[in-house]
Amino acid sequence: MMARFLPFLFLIVVLVGCKGDRDRLPGSAGGQDEVLVVMPKGHWESEPGAAVRALLQQPLAGLPQHEAMFRVAQCKPEDFASLLQLHHTVLFADLDANRSEVRSLKEVHALGQLIVRVEAPDPVSWIALLRERGEGIITIFEAHHRERTGAQVKREVDERVVSAVQQRLGVTLDIPGGYRVMTLEDDFAWLQRDRVMAGSGMEHNVIEGLLIHRHPYTSDTIWSVPSLVALRDTVTRSRVPGPDPGSYMVVQKDFEGIDLMPRGRATELGGRYAYLMRGLFGMEGAKMGGPFVSLSTLDAKDDRIITVEGFVYAPQFDKRPYVRELEAIIFSLRKGAKENP
User: Lowest-pLDDT range, 6-15, 44-53, 104-113, 300-309?
Assistant: First the structure.
């Protein structure tokens, strides 16, 4: 099964600086979910720049409205110095190289930095290379941003909640402060954080939730969107009630003829096969909904499927920042006791 996604992981060669140089580097900088594109202005305002924007600003799957995968900033190569050189995520465009290749370099100018160099002899070849390797570039950028967000989450973990989940379900997650336990059982946990956030001159309620559930593993047919959606609906119908009497959480599958079925793909978690799914949830019997992201993997020792997912209800806000943090939390899933720092 891993063969379905491994090709993308080998599209890019990763080069890492030596430890001595790393110890002398400053910390990286830059906005959340931001990619700095280093490209001459003329190319940025023509076809190569359009190709970059089409790649990095494509819609993030599973959101109720259009939100780009990344925020994009641009500078000219001669301006890539000083503070800009410390940006945490860089796509460097070389359109006058000797050959076509994509290279990924870590911590060249700053700690926690990733630079992806896309090199080709001319603009036409460069655009073709970007489109050919685009999915791999997105994969490595997403993993890098998830790692950055995960490091922040790890610094904010609530040890009490983490310990309670570990003792009851035998798994560990980096759960930041503010989450309270709604339900905690041997094969199911529901954690929730309720916050009041300011936006558009007003204050609005934001609800973030984490669900953890375990099921017997029966066959490989579970690794598909329809199977995982059916499994999720079975869990939430009986265990995640909505705000109104008799209401409960479900996966949004369609709306007035529009296909809303979640999107899924194979990935990995700690070297193990996993399946990532993004979609929308709603409340049967109530007006409430938003995006969710789930990660399922196999606990071979217990022969059970473990699914961890995050969902958010934030009707007055962009959902991408919340979904990115929830994704970092679910990718922190590991079996057994909490790891020592």
Answer: 6-15
How many distinct structural domains can be found in the chain?
A: 2
The CATH number covering residue 301 comes to: 3.40.1000.10
Paired residues of 334 in beta bridges: 172
Which H or E element spans position 292?
strand 286-299
- Same domain? For 125 and 193 the reply is no
Looking at residue 175, the DSSP 8-state letter turns out to be -
Q: Which residues contact 280 (CB under 8 A, 6 or more apart)?
A: 62, 64, 251, 252, 260, 262, 289, 290, 291, 292
Is 340 contained in some domain? no
The amino acid at 48: P
Is the overall model pTM greater than 0.85, yes or no? yes
- The SS3 call for residue 318 is coil
Full domain range(s) for residue 69: 2-153
**Torsion sign over Cα 42, 46, 47, 48:** positive
Report the DSSP pairing between strands 304-313 and 263-269: unpaired
The answer to the question of residue 144 being in a domain is yes
What does the buried/exposed string (b/e) look like for 4-22 if buried means 16 or more CB atoms within 10 Å of the residue's CB? ebeebeebbeeeeeeeeee
Do residues 96 and 20 share a domain? yes
- What are 193's strand-pairing partners? 208
